[in-house]
## 1
Amino acid sequence: MSYADGLAPEKIAVLGAGSWGTTFAKILGDAAAGTERSIMLWGRRQEVVDQINQHHRNPRYLSSTELPANISASTHVRDVLQGAQLVVLAVPAQTLREQLRGWAGQLAQDAVVVSLMKGLELGTDQRMSQVIAEELSLPPGRIVVVSGPNLAMEIARQEPTASVVACADENTAKWVARLCKPAYFRPYTVDDVVGVEIGGIVKNVIALCVGICEGQKVGDNTKASVITRGLAETTRLALALGGKAETMAGLAGLGDLVATCSSSLSRNHTAGRMLGEGLTLEEVNNRMTQTAEGIKSGRAVSDLAAKMGVDMPITNAVVGVLEGRLTVDDLGPLLLARQLKSEGD
């Protein structure tokens, strides 16, 4: 198998031609410069595929970013998957299971699957790696998660960043890391898949709260407090599920949280800001061109926390706003009125 013996794949498939899927394809394409390796993107929209193939651009999602010549695209998933030893998934979390059921029989027998998705499945509260394992019957050593402070537009502009490649099998993680290491993207490897996924999931909900604060024009003290306490509740949930505290202090925890909560490029931060400015959830969704995953996954995070007996007041308050049980004006007083306790509790 290619990932076990260290051989580089001849073809990599990326399923999902949105901003992050296209950007990660660019990372893979730039890392493959000077080799015969090809990267093929699957996209739903013919106009997006045509732009990639004819002009080496995806203006719908990445403005004027030029893509490497070794990237091509198709709307036919069978063509994209055929012969691909590495398959990267970059589709909305809530559609993953249904899509995998249609793709399962088309993957190469020894393919490694990489998840770029940061969400929990509604109804099952499962992480994306768990959905992948169930639907594709893959062992943990062939499922990889990539996460970190990775705002797609900045990386597409080749602004330096670091990320985490997580897999239960160290050799597989290292194999994937070598395939996505252009000069501007630095991958680190870990074996804490749970911690990396939870960090990427919960930060979206916390970013909604920080965005709401910004929309209400409160100061940096408030936003810093939400980020810090948000990291605390993210860590509690990760540890309860078997994750590691050091992961939460690293790129996939603190790093991703700070980037998502601080940047206007973050979809979740932007959605929260619009809620804070007084827009309804329906109006926010109508204005968003891509999924704000925190809106979709908030309820699942809250349910999972309750199942595990983990206290997550910020998450629960944001879900209350999303579901119409609280107003944005209720958030501050509600969180500040909580019982006094030690910060370490």
## 2
Amino acid sequence: MKHNLFTIALISLFQICFGQKGIIINNQATHLSIQQKNDSIDFIVIDTILNMKKPIFLFCQGSMPMPLFVKPENEPVWMIGGGITNFDIMEIKQNYHIVVISMPKTPVIVGEKNLNESYCYIPNSEYPNEFDKQYMQSDYLENYQQRANAVLKYLRKQKWVDNSTLIVAGHSQGSKVATAITLSNKNVTHLGLFGANPFGRIDQLIRNYRKEAETKKISWKEADEKINDKYQLFKDAYNNDSLKKDPSLLPWKSFSRPQINDWLKITIPTYLAYATNDIASDLCDLVPIFYIQNSKTNLVYKRYLNLEHNFFEVNEDGTANYDKEHWPEVMSEFVKWTLQKKKPVTFSCHYFRLKTISCTYEDPAYFIR
């Protein structure tokens, strides 16, 4: 309950008014909480008046203990919201209630002194790389799945929720959470996967060492040593004694399970969007092959050229150009897709800086752009 006390202390620093069974934060979102036996699950709905009946759009954020809101020392509170501020929020709100669940054991609102350079919550500012121990022990896939399903169960009972549609989308680690939710919750109608790794998490480190050796950034001997180190880390993650000593190994075990096997079990419309300059998503190019082999036609995939993991354009040296973002357009395409009334048909579009350069599809009626 420590993080709840921390949140309450911050609330006294600035004006937050109480709304319908929740707390209105910064006139942007309603903070709600579900109390469980050993925990509380905090989440926000991106609205301040919950009187319009709309379906839920649950966005599963990526990794790391980022709060949903930040309170600078001498400035108003501002929203991170699990990354949804990168999207055109008003466009999504026209049709859906946007919901984001707080990371486990992480306050909804955190003062800047308790954030490191990556905006992750740290209990002690003197140790910027040390996360809350309770968070470390809670950072595993099954816990995220259980927490999300508890929130969705609560939301289904609310008068302002239209249960005819349920959108679940996730970015990076959130794609794994979104997949787990979809497999365990029959009410999900559309699944969105962004910056996903179809073969787990640890494999991208191994592939990256190989790429560095191929481009002569490191020697093959160095790559061999680094790859073997990752094998050992993975072995430790599957050793109960090692896990007890080092809870940071837990997510390596939990999130390295290949997703492609789970995706092939899913029958609802699934949308996969990824960028070509993203080591995590390199193997997404292989996903359509698995769907073809298994005679599955519920996948729509979009490959964005010359963009990186967070859909920023990439400079010639491979670094992200933070002045040229494309998250709004990427998410907008997904939202339009969810609103299609007819049964979706598999198609593929290749984009370069959001200009279509080639497409293949079965029915022109489903071509969104």
## 3
Amino acid sequence: MPAIPLFITDPLWSQFQALIPPVVDEHPLGCHRPRIPDRVVFDKLIQVLVLGASYEKISDTTCSATTMRRRRDEWITAGIFTALEQICLDSYDRIVGLELDDLCVDGCIVKAPCGGEIAGKSPVDRGKQGTKRSVMTDGAGIPVGVIAAPANRNDSPLLLPTLELLSRFNGHLPEQITVHLDAGYDSTKTRALLTALDCDWQISTKGEPLQAGARWVVERTNAWHTRGFKKLLINTERRATVNDAFIALANAIIIIRRLIREAWTTHRWEARPERKP
């Protein structure tokens, strides 16, 4: 049984395959062993992302752990994961429409038992190694940007680099943007930053009962990340680039799933699943 339904992975793979650069065989005699098909490696990486298992446990006679890591690094160097995430965002914006006039930002701390470049002492896990993700979503909860940092980083300093990810839309943004934040961002510096960026804000006040407001969608997106992808629940990757690649792949899957769900009542296509996802 596939880790992700085929009506999601098949269109995802079609676009991913189109982004893979041609392989140049530099062996002087051209006598390499047959190259493992890219689709096999792609499916294995999906399993690693969803199940959170090690490469060795996912490997079998069709693909070794070394091949998974090597091919993964090739695709990261080529920028395929980031490009795939951007294509999914553009497709969703074209078909359904991103609600970029309301942005929600929140931090999410997960375990990072192997340490690495983006690991630090977690303030919510007795000082054990952890990673923080600063997640930005549109008004409907579609992930439009994620910044990963050590768990001991405060939320406020991560707000600017997170908002800077809006540059991926090449300036095609609403004239007025409202940023929804929780009480962890309740500071003069945060308000000064949003004023400088010409953004409105809704920030929960410290010391008062929980104020949900419109920012609940980013909490739901954090749940999609941690409950749907065990690799993001427990970060075992030591390199930031690999962690970012898996986040981009998870975001692409989330966006495709939401796109299919939103288009269920408005569009018809041959590969439309029998049941609403």
## 4
Amino acid sequence: MDLLSRVLSLIPVRGRLDVRCHFGAPWSIAQGNAAGREIPYHVLVSGQAVLEYGDGPSEQLTAGDIILFPAGGSHRLYDGSGRPPAPALHRQDVSLVVEENEGSGARADILCGRFLDGAVPDRLLREHLPGRLVVRSTHRAGATLNGDGEATGTLADTRLERLIQLMREESVDEGPGSEALVSHLSAALFALTLHFAGTGSQPPHGLLALAARPSLQPAVSAIFEAPEKPWTLDQLATLCNMSRATFVQQFQEVIGRSATDILTDIRMTLAGRKLIESGLGVAEIGEMVGYQSSAAFQRIFKRLIGVTPSHYRTLGGNVEAA
């Protein structure tokens, strides 16, 4: 199993489409910090937009761009005209809020939603992705023409474009089962976006960069397949046919953390799922994920997750309610 599949199998992610926007310039979408376990996303179905996030420079977006905010940070999308946005009108469709304005300028069609982490610790996902991730589903350069004179893109382009188009159609039609179908399509969008994120113009970051380093995959596979084993850096380096120093250096260069840090995150994720999904005792769960000492397991769990394993179970994984 590849790295992304392993992570998604540990951390179930659901998708939810909340708002469909039909705007004419000038317009603006501003969102504050997301709640815990929420990853906001936007799909620019048509038109153009400007993205502002944090202290970094603004970024130009075009139709087909998908924007994720794994860190849940505040951000703004707008038309770029510099004029005050026209007031937006809201109306409730069957399952979606539709926002429209009376702007007479260039049109933009935007889908806005959230990816929702399952009730497990999400450090493995959230802390190993960039705060902002832009994936282009439309081929920008080097397009070729087919026999009909139409531009053709890459496999990534066509897959994402088809999925986005289907999401748009279902969100507009709202027939029987459309709400559930759009949610499933949104979850697929998350996986497919990450799948192709490492192949875009942005340098891969965190887990995406780790997935692109074949020389480290033997160690990565080992800690995902058997996280309960007492792995040492020497053992993991040997699996990769490297010296300990080279292994540590390469892992640090790729992801900015050590292999033992990733191992600990995997263990905490597994433990969180077992606490919610099973009736096993805390000590037994700790041993199953690699800790012979219950005290050590509880200490590490609280340090990383913020609450004790027992309290985590009582909260149903909703640490934000603590």
